[in-house]
Amino acid sequence: MKKxxxxxxxxxxxxxxxxxxxxxxxxxxxxxMSVITSVTAQNTKGxxxxxxxxxxxxxxxxxxxxxxxxxxxxxxxxxxSSEIIKTVAKALTYYNAKNIxxxxxxxxxxxxxxxxxxxxxxxxEDLIPICTIITPNIDExxxxxGIKIKNIEDVERACQRIYEFxxxxxxxxxxHLDGEPIDVLYDGKDxxxxxxxxxxxxxxxxxxxxxxxxxxxxxxxxxxxxxxxxRSKEYIQGAIENSFSIxxxxxxxxxxFRFRLNKNDE
Length: 266
Ligand SMILES: Nc1ncnc2c1ncn2[C@@H]1O[C@H](COP(=O)(O)OP(=O)(O)OP(=O)(O)O)[C@@H](O)[C@H]1O
Ligand SMILES: Cc1ncc(CO)c(N)n1
Fold this sequence. Notes:
Layout: E1 3-11, H1 17-27, E2 31-43, E3 46-52, H2 55-66, E4 73-76, H3 82-94, E5 100-102, H4 120-127, E6 133-134, H5 138-145, H6 152-164, E7 170-172, E8 182-186, E9 191-195, H7 207-220, H8 225-241
Parallel strand pairs: 1-2, 1-4, 4-5, 5-6
Antiparallel strand pairs: 2-3, 7-8, 8-9
Helix pairs in contact: 1-7, 2-3, 3-4, 5-6, 7-8
The structure holds adenosine-5'-triphosphate (ATP) and 4-amino-5-hydroxymethyl-2-methylpyrimidine.
């Protein structure tokens, strides 16, 4: 059984963060583990508040796992401050962690800041250099690369810029650009384009968390980077196609669509 870890924030409504990650791990039939960095009070309408765990306790959770269990891949999500980013980078370096997937979460869909502005430079300097792949959306890529992204050429330039910060691979997600959602992967040599079909749905809570978790699962399952992204893109497409409404706002996607015999299964 492959073992995959998420280091991220908790979403009380279960659509994003740690909860989305663990559901994605289960849907890939890998063993899921978690290090919680922050607890958010959140629902489909937005984030009410976030409470960070002390950095010592985040470090302790990482230690508990790596001193006992051989981790096949790790996905990193919400890290809200410079000191938390430094703590996680130091611990993962110490334990020689492999297959590190970084989703540089900055702002929730509803606009709540999940990362302090001044911590973006720490993310770039301390965490990107140890990552196997980083998966920013358009806004996150723009902020890190210092490039206004309006079209696919801008996406390619941003990929190159972020690659220069030291990540092995950069995947910029095109969900927020007009037209069909195209994600662009850059490995320092070649660009690979992953085209999806845009689904018109208001229920897209946790798409970014889910995609990065699926990539971590597929890397743990020994797929190459290109195949891991391809399979994860197929997974997110199916999960969004089968998204559903709960609450009054942005509802969740269906992590378990492949397991349902028909659409009305509960
Ligand atoms: N409406 C859509 N239809 C199909 N695919 C989509 C749609 N929206 C996003 N995607 C895909 O979902 C994945 C996540 O992309 P997105 O740009 O939404 O990430 P994100 O902004 O980080 O998500 P989040 O808001 O959860 O943090 C990408 O592979 C993207 O192409
Ligand atoms: C805890 C958490 N992590 C990530 C996201 C993605 O936006 C979110 N909404 N909440």
